[in-house]
């Protein structure tokens, strides 16, 4: 069970505790106008006062908040959802990151050994997260975390989530676990070497260097220890890898496998899938999911339960694959470079929005059109492909656009 900390000062009723719980869980958002930040601040102050936060929070901290326009632009154009798989991986799993990551493995050899023993997280994964998040501390972000999170909390798109994060940040400040002056990070409010959100920092932050405080900005030991604790607590499977790239046989029957669904590994072996070196898959009792980041035009991966754990850190399959590939490179795997997707098979976020809307109108449930290729969209695309004798790879290919009578070239 996860326990929530609430400030002990001036909490006057059970209803206040319930409201604080709902805010922390992201179930309740404040009644704010996305176009009126000042009114949003008023709502923050009212709720903070009701919930018993200090005068420092209700007056000084909240009064000093200001919106950051660029944050909303970045939120709507995240690389995880705007770049192709090849673009994303080739930019992140680089020779530089591999070279520097190996240095970090050696530099923190004893600490990482202890963390692996205690938490069951292999060292190369912790270092891979570190490399992807901040280039091993090279860039931890310079944006005001308070203002970034407040900006997103006042935006209707993800108000509930970021309201919860903002109030967790208030908890951290009120309990003196962090100081306002040190709260610099990413546009989304992530902080320190490993880019923890306030909720994660509050729940899983640990003192790795035994100096009596948790400082994920300056202490690499604190950051790595906290990351190991976090991954352990959210369900990392000890002695299991993240997944692997595989090779599909010619004329592979895509109707036999759904995207976003796990099957026993033996099922894939029976379908003729092999390692990239065309060796048989192991007779290992584990469930796996087939991931086709560019449909049948690109590479194929079998991913295991730890892949889903990585996605709890960042809800992007491209990100999770990058962590896996970088961790493999750090322990000697061969370099893999992925060819750019043919321009005809690429899609923009706006194009995908229109495809989602079109499929929705045809009775295929994609959810609200948002231009993000998530599980609902993949399922809808695959259902449409099956009904129209197309390759059922759940990818928004040119063939799918043509079949629904959408002209991609006319969509900016």
| Backbone CA Rg | 23 Å
Read across the widest sheet, the strand sequence of neighbours is 4-6-8-3-5
Q: N- to C-terminal separation?
A: 48 Å
Low-confidence stretches: 1-12
What gross morphology would you assign?
A: globular
Main beta-sheet strand count, sense and barrel state: 5 strands, antiparallel
Structure annotation, total helices: 19
- Which whole number gives the mean pLDDT? 91
Approximate helicity band: 40-55%
Classified in CATH, the superfamily of the domain at 14-74 and 141-233 is: Bacterial muramidase
The run of helices and strands is HHHHHHHHHEHHEHHEEHEEEEHHHHH
The CATH topology of the domain at 14-74 and 141-233: Helicase, Ruva Protein, domain 3
Provide an overview of this structure.
By secondary structure, this protein is an alpha+beta fold. Among the domains are: 154 residues, Bacterial muramidase (Helicase, Ruva Protein, domain 3), CATH 1.10.8; 68 residues, Orthogonal Bundle (Muramoyl-pentapeptide Carboxypeptidase, domain 1), CATH 1.10.101. It is 48% helix and 6% strand. It has 19 helices and 8 strands. The longest helix is centred in the middle third of the chain and has 16 residues. The chain is globular, with a radius of gyration of 23 Å. 41% of the residues are buried. InterPro entries: Lysozyme-like_dom_sf, MltB-like, MltB_2, Peptidoglycan-bd-like, PGBD-like_sf, PGBDSf, SLT_2.
Question: Summary?
Answer:
Residues 37-328 form the Transglycosylase SLT domain. This protein is α+β, with helices and mostly antiparallel strands and 412 residues long.
